[in-house]
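If your schedule permits, I should be very grateful for your opinion on a structural question. Thank you for your consideration; the sequence and its C-alpha cells are set out here:

===
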Amino acid sequence: MSDPEMDDPGTRPASLADLEEFEDFDDESAATVRPMATQAVYRPDFGDTSRTSRASAGSATTEPNERMTTVTRPRSPTRRLGGGLVEIPRVTERNPLAALMTNPVVAESKRFCWNCGKPVGRASKDGPARSEGVCPYCGSAYSFLPQLSPGDMVVDQYLIKGCIAHGGLGWVYLAFDTNVNYRPVVLKGLVHSGDAEAQATAMAERQFLAEVTHPAIVKIFNFVEHDDKHGDPVGYIVMEYVGGTSLKQRKGTKLPVAQAIAYMLEILPALGYLHSLGLVYNDLKPENIMVTEEQLKLIDLGAVSRINSFGFLYGTPGYQAPEIIRTGPTVQTDIYTVGRTLAALTLKLRTRKGRYVDGLPDDDPVLRKYDSFGRLLRRAIDPDPARRFTSAEEMSGQLMGVLREVVAQDTGVPRPGLSTVFSPPRSTFGVDLLVAHTDVYLDGQVHSAKLTAPDIVKALQVPLVDPADVGAPILSATVLSQPVQTLDSLRAARHGTLDSEGIDLSQSLELPLMEVRALLDLGDVAKATRKLDDLAQLADRVERVGWRWRLSWFRGVAALLTADYDTATKYFVEVLDTLPGELAPKVALAATAELAGSADERRFYETVWRTDNGVISAGFGLARAQSADGHRDDAVRTLDLVPATSRHFTTARLTSAVTLLSGRSISEVSERQIRDAARRVEALPEGEPRVLQIRALVLGTAMDWLADNTASTNHILGFPFTQHGLQLGVEASLRSLARVAPTQAHRYALIDLANSVRPMSTF
C-alpha cells in the first residue's frame, strides 16, 4: 500500500504547469485538456455524513470472519524470472485485512486542489492544516477524507472494510464481495466527484476496461455508482484484490539491476497487450506493479486511455512523458514510463519539489558499471519520441539482451542468447594471428599476420531481413551465400525474371540493402556507398519505423573498409545506442578500435566474451588486448575459456602457449610459464596442426632460459629439464618438422639446425 507520508507526487492529470516547469514548448501545439483534478475530492457540504447506495437498501449481510485462515504449502523461498536468469525472493501471501490503513490521512505535502492543481489543506500562519475546505485560488471545495467508511455497502454487494491507499483520484478501498463468497476486491474512484457530467462520461468511457484480459493485468469485475451525501453519483471501478508487495522501495534502497530488469520483462508483455487493443496504460511506476506469490501484476487501471485520446490525461510527474500534452497518450509515452520506472528502481534520481527530475544522473555508479543498461535507459526516455523504442516487444527484446550482459557480469558465467535482429557470426577473425608467426618453423617463410578490415567484415554479423518488407519472401527464397550469386539473384528479381506474385518491389528496402551487403563483401565500397545514399532517400519516402539503424550499420562497415575509423565508430555507436542489448555492434566497435589502436577494444571485447563465449573472435581479441597491455596471465585465462567443443579450441591452447613465451626477452620468462606452456601443448594430440612447431618453440625457449637460470629436473614434454635433455628435445622436434617440410630447401635447413643443437656424444 502507499505510504501517505512519502513525498511522491502521486498520479495526477497531465498539466501544462507540470511540464512547463521543466521544458519549453509551444502552447498552440498543446492538447486541450479539461480542468485538472489531483488528490482532492470534491465535497461541497461538510455537515451531512449520510451515505446512500444507488441501489435500494439491501438485506442483512453477514461479514466474513476477521480471523481468516490460510492453508500453506511448502514452496521454494525463491523463484526465477527473466527467462530463468534471475532468482528473486518469493513474496508471502498475506491476509487482505493486513493491508488496511489504521489512520487514513493524506500528508500535507501531497494535498492539491482537484480543479486547479494548486497546494491546499496546508498549515499556515492562519491556522493548522485542514482536511476539508475551499481552495483559495479557484474556489472549489475539496476534501481529503475518505468518502466511504468501514461497514458501508455499495450497490448492496460490496462491503467496505477500509482504506488501503490514496492515489490521484482519491482513496482506494478494500471491500468484500458479498455475492461471491466474500471475495476481497478493491474499489477506486473513476474521476473526482463534483462534476456529474464528468462522472457519467467516465463511466461510459471506462466500460472498455472490462474487456481487458491478461494474466499480468489486474482483473476488472464491475463498474458501480454510489451516491454521496448530496445524492450525486460517484463512479467506482471494482477490481481484483492483488495481495503482495509493490515495487515501491523505501527511500535510499534500490533494486539490483538484474532484478529490476527481470520485473520489467514480466510487465512489458502486458503493456504490449494493451497497445494491441489501442490502449495506453499511462501511469507505470513502481507502486503500480505488484509482486505476488506467483507473478507480477499491473494494478490501478484508472489512468488507462485510448491511444491519441485527450481529456483526462492522468500520470505521475517524474514518470510522465513530457510531450503527452501535445500528442496525447501514445505507445512512446508508455515506453517513456517504462524507462523512468527502471531508472527509479535502480538509480539515485535527483528530485525537485517532491518529484523526480527528468533525465539521468550521469555520475551514478550503476550507469558506469552497466554501460548497455544506461544506453537502454537513455533510448527509452529520449526527449524525441521518434527515437524511443517503437514497441513494448522491441524494448523487451533489447532488455533481455541487456539482462544477459548484466547477469554474466554479476556471476561470471556466460549467458548467451540468439539475436532476433542480427545473424550469428558468419566466421571468425583474428583467431590465428599469434600462432601464425610460428609457421616459419613449418615452411621457412616469415609470416607477418595482422588484423585486416576485410577479414573483420566477412566475419561480422549482419542484420536479419525484416519479415515485414515486401521483398522478404524473394530474399529468403533466392539469395545465396556467395556475394556474386546474391547480386545475380537481386538483378533477376529487379528485372522481373523472378515470380514476385504481383508485389511492387520498388517499395522494398531489404532488396537494395542486400545488394549493399554483397557489394561490401566484394570490397566495392564506392558503389555500396552510392546505393546507401539512394536507400536513405527511399527510406524517407517509405517511412519505415525503426529501420534507420540498418543504414548506420552498413555505413559503418563501409567506413571500416576505407580505414575511416572515426566515421565507422560513429555509425556503430548509433547502432549500439539503438540496440543496446545486441552483441554485434560491440564486436564491430571492438574490432574498429583495435585497428585504430584505441583502448576501447578491450572494454567491448570483454563485454561480448563475458556474455557469450561462443563469439570466438571476441575471446581472441580480448586476449590480444590483454597481452598488449602486459597482462599475459589474464590473456591466457581468457583463452582457456574457449569451449572444448569449439573448432578453435586447439588454436586457443597453442595461442596461450605462444602468449606465455613469445614477444619478450628471455629474462622476462619464468620457469612456471615455460612449464605451463608445455602442459598445454602436451595435452594436445601430436597430429594436430602446428603442435610440432609449438613444441619446438617451448623446448627452444626452455633451453635458452636454462642457460642463465636453474630449474628442477622434472621432465618437460618428455625430456629432462636439463641442458642435455632440452638439446635432445629441440633436436627431435626439428627433425620431426623436417619430415613434413613442404620444400627440400627448408627440410635441409631444419636438419642443419637440428644438428647444431644436438648435444655432443662420446664414443
About this structure: DSSP finds 25 helices and 19 strands in the chain. The longest strand covers residues 158-167. The first helix runs from residue 16 to 20. Residues 248-411 form a domain with the Transferase(Phosphotransferase); domain 1 fold (CATH 1.10.510.10).
